[in-house]
Model the fold of this input.
Amino acid sequence: LSKGMNSAPAGYASTVCFCSGIILSVIYSNIIPKVKDQRFLGTLAALGYLISVLLLAFAPWKPLFIAGCIGMGFFCGGMFNSATFFFAARSRNSRQAIKVSGMAQGFGYILTSSSSLLMGFLYDTTGGWTAPLLFMAAIAVISMVFGFLAGRDKYV
Done:
């Protein structure tokens, strides 16, 4: 809304963002198990997410903003699919996979819930979306590093 959109187009953009995540999630679910070293795939999704978030933050033109919305959802689907795949692929047995999954999901939910509060605080403090989106960009960079590390053909 603060980018000059009315509420209905902003709602449609949000819907397209979330629905586009299904596409890369389906693609990744077919590709990831067939590739022995998934570093490229783990990093690619986070890089695409980073570019999309930066488009949302700095796009001066509405079509670029919409592309950022679509890309954000699209690449978020790949990041989520990669993360859930790595729980099992990087574990030696089901017991270890359960422990890795529990630890990672617990940390992820804590990060997600606290990030929402931080995003609201940043928005209220700065009066705009640039700072919250730059925070998301920083998270994307961290995700690129962890996507690369988790994509190696190694067990935890």
